[in-house]
Amino acid sequence: MRKKIKILALSAMLLCSASIASAESFQIGDQGTDVAEIQGQLSNYGYDVAADGDFGPATAEAVKEFQAAHGLAVDG
């Protein structure tokens, strides 16, 4: 139950981050504190990604894995 709550919270954070940024989506090469925040949350939930603020291939893969694991459209 606790894990489900954490997953829901991460999902909400990821969705809210996109909404707050006017539906901004990230792609490889993007940088900044928003990217670092998402990376930190992914890392907290066991995804192998460093919270360095650089949206690289490892971050893109972690986002896709998260999306697939939670029934979301896998678009990175």
Category by helix and strand content: mainly alpha
Figure out the total of helices. Answer: 3
Runs in which pLDDT lies below 50 for 5 or more consecutive residues are 18-23
Net shape: globular
Helix content: 55-70%
List the helices and strands and how they pair.
Elements: H1 2-20, H2 33-44, H3 57-69
Please provide a written account of the structure.
The chain has 76 residues and is an all-alpha fold. The protein has one domain. The protein has helices at 2-20, 33-44, 57-69. The longest helix has 19 residues, at 2-20.
Short summary of the structure?
With 76 residues, the chain is mainly α. It is built from 3 helices and no strands.
Provide the descriptors you would attach to this structure in a database record:
76 residues; mainly alpha; 3 helices; 0% strand; globular
